[in-house]
Give the backbone structure.
Amino acid sequence: MRHLLLAACLALFTACGSNKTTSDTPATDTCRVAFSADSAFAYVKAQCDFGPRLPGSTAHQRCGDYIAQQFKAFGLTVTEQTAPLAAWDGKTFTCRNIIASYRPEMTDRVIICAHWDSRPWADADPDATKHDLPVMAANDGASGVAVMLEIARLAATLNPAVGIDFICFDLEDYGAPEGKGPGDGSDWCMGSTYWSGTPHKADYNARYGVLLDMVGGRDARFKYEGYSMKYASDIVARLWDAARTAGAADYFPTTDGGWITDDHVPMNEIARIPTVDVIPCYDSEPAFGPTWHTTHDTVEAIDPATLQAVGQTLLQLLSQE
Ligand SMILES: [Zn+2]
C-alpha cells in the first residue's frame, strides 16, 4: 500500500474525534475466547519459511496451498478465485484470491481480509543497494493472514451469530517503485480490485469488512484511517470500542491517521461493502513502521504482543455479533 495524506484528514475528523468512547453505552461483556499470540506467530513463521511469496514464484504457490489447507483443517469452506491480471510492468500473473468461509450457509456475513503476497522490491530499504531485493513480508502480508488463521481456528469455539469470510487477497503489493508506475495508484491492490468487481459468489454481500495490514509490528499504533472513516465510521467506532474492551486501547488510539491506498478502497468503492483498514500509523517516519518495504521485514521483527492486541480485538468484535 502507499500514500499517506496526513494533513488532509485532520480537519475532516475533528468533529467526530471526541465521540468514540463507551462511557454512554452499556458495559460490554468481555469475550472469553482467548486469542493465542504464540499460535499466530507460528502462522507468520510458517508462511515466511516458504521464502518471499513473490507473484509467480514457487514459494507463492506453495504458501497459497498451505493457507488454503490450514483453513480447511479448521473446518472452513475454501473457494479459490484465479484470474490472469496484467501488472504495471507488462507482466501477467495468475491472481489467486483465497476465500475461507465460516458457516457459508448464513446470509448475514462479515469479512476479515488481508493480502498474502510479498513485495518483490525492498525499495524503502535504508540501504539503496538492497532496493531490488525481495521483501520477506513477515509483517506486510503474513501477519494479517496469521491473525485470520488464528481466528478461524477459534471460530467454532467463539460461535459468533454471523458468517465470516476470510479473504486472502493476492497481488496487493506489486505496485511500482516510486516514479516507475502510472502514478495513480492503479498498480496496487490488484487482487482486491478484481474481487470487488467480480466476487467469488454471485450476488455476494457482507455487512462490513475489516482489512488487516501490517498487524505484527513492534509498538504499532492503529489510528483512524481516512477512507475507513469516510465509508465505515460506524464500524471504526465499534472496532475501537472492542479494542478498549479487549484491553488493547494502547494499540488503538482514538486519533486520526492518514489516507491509505489499500485493499479496502476497492471494497468500499467498487463492492460497496463498508470496510475498515487496520494499519499502523507511527508517529515517526516511515509512518508504516521501520521495516516497511525493507529487507528488515522479517519474523525477528514481529512482536507477538501486537498480534495479540489485534486478534483479541477482532474476537471481541465478533463476539458482539
Ligand atoms: Zn506493502
Remarks:
- The longest strand covers residues 92-102.
- Confidence is low (pLDDT under 50) at residues 6-24.
